[in-house]
């Protein structure tokens, strides 16, 4: 079973709709992240959380909100989706210390806003 | 200023040959890590290799090696004996442990095409 899962894997929605993307992890990591990737570009950080009570904005948080329901769950919401939020969204986790500073990525969610 | 720069939008290599993908970075943090990820057309992010700023030796993982030149702030990925399955997009990323709360910054990627 995958360590980091995302649901849904694909979603098509309309402008103005509220959308929630969910992320779950079984790695026991405290840190979780949401990124978006636009075609031909790298990943940009939307929000990150270092523990259940710690939520921080990334570089492109406008139009998004998050909820850290438990250590293992981190959800991303688009309150009122717009077409330029069409992108590939990744959830990631990480822990502290040495080589474990690697981030583990979920499979991604392809979101299309019409 | 761009923290991670990948100057090669696209690269071609002949099967079985070696290829180097460039990455330069910018940080004032003394403690940081450099990562390379592979993203095939299916979209998932696959971790390839890691280099810590205090690591004295260049990292190697199978056919992947990282040519780390700290003074030049470069962390190039070398893929030896390229295979057709290596065709993908490759991202260089950096985590700054002191100054940026450990968040990752990604470059815009290099698309590698391996020719048969």
Protein model, in words:
The complex is a heterodimer of chains A (114) and B (116). Chain A has no helices and eleven strands. Chain A is an all-beta fold. With 116 residues, chain B is mainly beta. Helix content of chain B is 0%, strand content 51%. Chain B starts with a strand and ends with a strand. The A-B interface holds A 31, 33, 35, 40-45, 48, 50, 56, 58, 88, 90, 92, 94, 96, 98-99, 101-105, 107-108, 110 and B 4, 33, 35, 37, 43-45, 47, 50, 52, 91, 93, 95, 97, 101-104, 106-109.
Order of helices and strands of chain B, N to C? EEEEEEEEEEEE
User: Distance between termini of chain B?
Assistant: 38 Å
Distance between the termini of chain A: 33 Å
Let me know the average pLDDT of chain B: 93
Task: Give a summary of the structure in a few sentences.
The complex is a heterodimer of chains A (114) and B (116). Chain A is mostly beta strands.
Features:
heterodimer; A: about 110 residues; mainly beta; seven-stranded mixed sheet; four-stranded antiparallel sheet; about 0% helix; globular; B: about 120 residues; six-stranded mixed sheet
SSE layout and pairing:
The complex is a heterodimer of chains A (114) and B (116).
Chain A: E1 4-7, E2 10-13, E3 19-25, E4 31-37, E5 43-51, E6 54-57, E7 64-70, E8 73-78, E9 87-94, E10 104-105, E11 109-113
Parallel strand pairs in A: 2-11
Antiparallel strand pairs in A: 1-3, 3-8, 4-5, 4-9, 5-6, 7-8, 9-10, 9-11
Chain B: E1 4-5, E2 10-14, E3 19-21, E4 24-25, E5 32-39, E6 46-52, E7 60-61, E8 64-69, E9 74-79, E10 88-96, E11 104-106, E12 110-115
Parallel strand pairs in B: 2-12
Antiparallel strand pairs in B: 1-4, 3-9, 5-6, 5-10, 7-8, 8-9, 10-11, 10-12
């Amino acid at each position: 079973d995958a360590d980091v899962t995302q649901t849904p894997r694909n979603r098509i929605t309309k402008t103005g709709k509220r959308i929630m993307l969910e992320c779950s992890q079984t790695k026991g990591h405290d840190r979780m992240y949401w990124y978006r990737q636009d075609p031909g570009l790298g990943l940009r950080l939307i929000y990150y959380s270092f523990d259940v009570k710690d939520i921080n904005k990334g570089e492109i948080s406008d139009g998004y909100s998050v909820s850290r329901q438990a250590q293992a769950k981190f959800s991303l919401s688009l309150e009122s989706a717009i077409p330029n939020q069409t992108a590939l969204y990744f959830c990631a986790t990480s822990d502290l210390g040495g080589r474990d500073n690697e981030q583990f990525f979920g499979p991604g969610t392809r979101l299309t806003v019409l | 200023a761009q923290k991670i720069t990948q100057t090669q939008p696209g690269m071609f290599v002949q099967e079985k040959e070696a290829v180097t993908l460039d990455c330069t970075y910018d940080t004032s943090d003394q403690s940081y890590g450099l990562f390379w990820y592979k993203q095939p057309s299916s979209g998932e992010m696959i971790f390839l290799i890691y280099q810590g700023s205090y690591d004295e030796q260049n990292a190697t993982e199978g056919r992947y090696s990282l040519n780390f030149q700290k003074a030049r702030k470069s962390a190039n990925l070398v893929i030896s004996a390229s295979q057709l399955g290596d065709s993908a997009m490759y991202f260089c990323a950096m985590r700054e442990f002191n100054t940026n709360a450990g968040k990752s910054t990604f470059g815009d990627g290099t698309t590698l095409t391996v020719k048969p």
